[in-house]
Amino acid sequence: RTSCPRAISLMSSFGSRIVKARWAADHPDVAFLAAIKVVGLDKQGMLNDLIRIISLRMKLNIRKVTIESHGGMFEGRFDVFVHNKDELEQLMASMESLPHVYTVTRAGNDIHKVLESEADKSKLQ
Q: Which of 22, 43, 61, 107 is least surrounded by Cβ atoms within 10 Å, i.e. has the fewest?
């Protein structure tokens, strides 16, 4: 991003060497780790409903889930692998459509590109 302080520093020092990034078309072996924050009423089965949307309906992999409950409300963070921004937005809209879910937002600025192809996994072993 051009608004990133590190990017601004690099562009000022190495401007002629910087090339504009172009994203390739969606590729099934490339996923991005997105952190999603969910706030809502702490009802029995709420976590199950959220997991069903992520895993069963959207068929996405979950890396990490953290849930806390205070005074009848819950706040959860879901680190989920998505393939593109549209898929992330669809997931967030589906989660927000659940009864008793009040807000669904991105949790920070922490999307990371992750290669999930079997070939890349085998190189790590």
A: 22
Regarding the domain with residue range 25-116, which homologous superfamily does it belong to in the CATH classification? ACT domain (3.30.70.260)
The three-state secondary structure class of 117 is coil
Instruction: From 115, 52, 44, 113, select the one nearest 78 (Cα to Cα).
Output: 52
CB 82 within 8 A of CB 32: yes
The DSSP code for 45 is T
Q: What is the DSSP letter of 66?
A: E
Long-range contacts of 55-60, Cβ-Cβ distance < 8 Å, separation of 24 or more: 57/94, 58/87, 58/90, 58/91, 58/94, 60/87, 60/91
Contact 112, 30 (CB under 8 A): no
Kindly give, in sequence order, each residue whose CB lies less than 8 Å from that of residue 15, ignoring residues fewer than 6 positions away. none
pTM to 2 decimals? Answer: 0.67
